[in-house]
Amino acid sequence: MHYRVSFYQGEMDSQPGGYVPSDMAVSLTPFRACMKGTEQAPGRCIALGEDKLCTIYENRPSVCREFPALLEDGSQNPECIRLQAMYGISRK
Ligand code: SF4
Question: Which among 11, 44, 61, 64 would be 20 to 30 A from 18, CA to CA?
Fold first, then answer.
């Protein structure tokens, strides 16, 4: 499974009130955009740094804010573990 990191174009900093760096995103439709690198599989988000951390964390799109990296019991979301293994980016 592949995740395209897509979000409402109004979140891009080229729009009033937007905050996601528009040079790191591409338009998909008149209303939707996605992070560069995730347009198609296999894809790695352009904002993912070499240290495996988000380089635009404070300005990441809503879809990233809503994805639960941790479960209610504090354990890592198994989907994160699966994706990290798939892309060889697991943190240790
Ligand atoms: S959290 Fe950051 S690095 Fe991860 S997908 Fe979102 S923008 Fe990209």
Answer: 44
